[in-house]
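Escalation from tier 1.

The customer reports that the assembly of two entities below gives different structure tokens on two consecutive runs. Tier 1 could not reproduce it. I'm attaching the input and our single run for tier 2 to review.
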Amino acid sequence: MRLDRHRPSPGALLLLAALAGLAACVAALLWSTQQPWMGLKLSPEAEGLRIEAVSPGSPAAGLPGAQRLPGSVLRSIGPVELRPSDLIEEPDAFRSYEQIGEFLARQSTLRRALQDGPVRLGIRAADGNAFEALLSPAPSRSFGDLPPSFWFQLFCGLCALLVGVWIWVLRPFDWGARMFALTGLSFPVATISAAVYSSREIAIDGAAFRALSGMNHAGSMAFGMALIAMFLCYPKRIVEPRALLAIPALFLPWLAADLLRLMPDQDWGIRAPVLLMVLIAFGCAVKQWRMTEGDPHSRGALRWMSLSTTLGCGLFVLTTVLSKLLGWLPPLEQGYAFGFFLIVYLGIALGLRRYRLFDLDRWAFRILLWVGGALALLTLDALLLLSLRLAPAASLGLSLLVIGFLYLPARSFLWHRVVDRRRLADDELFQAVLQVAFTASSDERAQGWQALLRRMFDPLELEVLGPDPFGRRYTAHDSDRPEILRDGLAMALPAVASSPGLVLRYPWKGRELFGLAQLRLATHVVELMRHADASRDAYERGVVEERRRVARDLHDDLGARLLASLNRPDLASTRRTIREAIAEMRSVVAGLAGESQDLGACIAGLRHETASRLEAAGIELDWPLTDGVDGIRVDYRICKNLSSMHRELVSNVIRHANATRLSVAIELNDGRLRSRVRDDGVGGAVADAADSFGLRNLRRRVEELNGKVSVADARPGTLVDIELPLTAGGAR
Amino acid sequence: MSRDRRPLALVVEDLPEVRDWLAEALAKAFDGIEVGRVGTLSEARAWLAALESGSRDAARLKMALIDLGLPDGSGIDLVRELTERHPHVLTIVATIFDDDEHLFPAIAAGAQGYLLKEQEPEALARHLRMIDEGLPPLSPSISRRMLAHFRERGALPASGAAASAGGATSAAGSAVPAARVPVEPVAARADGAPSPGAESITLSPRETEVLSYIGRGLRVGEAAKVLGLTEHTVAGYVKTLYRKLNISSRAEAALEAARRGLV
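Tier 1 run:
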């Protein structure tokens, strides 16, 4: 078992990725707003740029005659005559690299003109009159002026990032998930860079533009490469992971050639490789389709994956790349075309449960919820800090007071409820274990055990390992101790509490890993549970044994007596036998009170009963009290059989012996109980087999107790000598 | 109205055959006794209520034979009610189990004897007459349970503790144990006129000895022989023990009620 404590937990990784994505968005936002700003909303026109609107509060709005601007055409900025292509959203639309170079040079010139202070704008009004206006661009643009497509592209990038990383943190060892995560990491690189340059007012620095465009190309190609790799690994593995390196080996030089403008033109530089990648990915999906034949589970997953991927990528390629290549499709603004990729990521998130994509299920959403909760709280903190910084000094004190008394406690409560993990106190744990162990039915016990583990570790996933229909275990985990698997992502638990073995994954909603402390705790709880199980089993065995004993006694003693009573010749002896049966029943019932009985009490009861019976029969009893038997606990069977044997002997004497006196001597020596019963009657009990039921019974009982019995003709009368061991072994 | 002076008995037993059998035994034991027969607790209560409405009838009630396991509850409740409302009535438990688990609570509730139901009517009648004469039966298991009960409450005399069921050393045939000091403490006054108080529920050394011998398996007659007393005297001790156990349990119930704030 390898425990790498430096490894961050899935929750931490996802939160980290989300924060990194947010940071990238904030950087893009800051950079986009730190550009010189006129405040004009422009659109391409045949000769220059049409002014669609003027942003309120902008430098342009402050111009004299600003109301004439909407509808006018901006012809020039400073010395530069404007072209419709200056406003182009995506420079990839240019076919040749020379065109791009010229475009970027114009961007730099325009940017400089705007940055260097007041510029003269050449405008042709809607009525055809040309006029000029001197405008001082503001040094920065306000947030609100950024177009919706800017925000939309950031949103698409963030979504892809979150979904990709989300799958990966839960399945970090799955190559398919790794490659899918790579698409999610590449995609925001492409969209966030595009968001910056596509939402410029008119110009940004050419070098920065080129770098951003390069990022966009790199992101797009990385996305394509990862997509191919994913369909080579998921759902079936088509090639070994090492072979995946062939993909960058082919496309990275291509990308470099594109970035260095070594390709003949942009069609070859970017459009061709992207198209090629999509085709290869599609080819891999077809290959997967063949390979998943006869595997409905993988087939279902593949169908959903390839449906969402081909739909998303296909629509994007159709509306952007192909429309440029073929030129007959109405082009869609690229910023919004990125939205098609949301189909891929949202589709995969939605298909998770139904198709168990990457073997994930509904539980996987809990970690997203947690990260969402943590992000929301952190954002709230940031907003609060920001508003505090902006607050006028006078209200600052009040704000601090409100924050101290209201916000911080409420936040702490929320953090605890939403984000922090809850642990089980020791006494609670102990109680819970016992409660589970002593639940009556095994199903409830198994459920209780699983519920307890959920309370202890709050895992995202709890897998029940069970035998498959052929009785083999389909898991390799056969240890009888808890074990940490996958570097702390999972812990395997042995079968206890009537539950099969379990694997818990992603403790505390994926926020932490299983460590040595958790392993120790789990080991203790499993031990405790085993102990409780064993006690309960012993108790249940005891109950079963007790029932069996009662059944046997009822059958052997009571049943035999009642049966004998049926065959008695006259009513008087029938009644007598039934009375004996009732006496036997009394012994059986007395045994229900406990497993062991006081030997003194047993002998006392026997003596008392014998004295009563003999008195009624007119026979004298000589039975001295036995010393040293009080307080000795003996097995119930010894008492019961001892009583039954004496009862039997006394019955025989009363019925057949024609005696006047009966003496009983019971003594205890070296753990052996010896009882001698002697009458002064006619004797001949040995030969007399008329009532062999009694004698047979006597021998059976003595044998059952590993004792000895001898019946001697002791003229006058008979001497019966019984010897029983009192040890537990003799009681069996 | 000579008919009204005939003694009256009640049999509470759910099995009709056994009920008749017990009634037969009563008739054998006491000449001309009139027997009321009921099968359940509620019938018994109704029977008693009807009886109480005529005061002369209530005085005629001599004894009640009560089965413990009745269809609508435990006969012990009826024993307790009878002991409280009609102390002159002999309450006798009719049972097939003579172990302490079943009988001890009944004696503590005020039962003044018990009968094993499976006996022949003649034997039943004999036992009934003995109880009527103040010779209640006492089995070894009940004796032991009584000893334990009074020992737990510190109600045994100092010398008597040594003579408890586990401590006696003599055999039945031998003489009175030397350690026995024939000093009657104040508590022995309870033998004559029991009054519900703390001193009335301590046992005298003699009573302790009787319990001890019977707990080891001697019958009342044998115990009397060992103690050098008449059988009737020993039987008198047994009767007193029954009563003391009842008083003790009632005092305990009252204490418990007071502790719980019920009184």
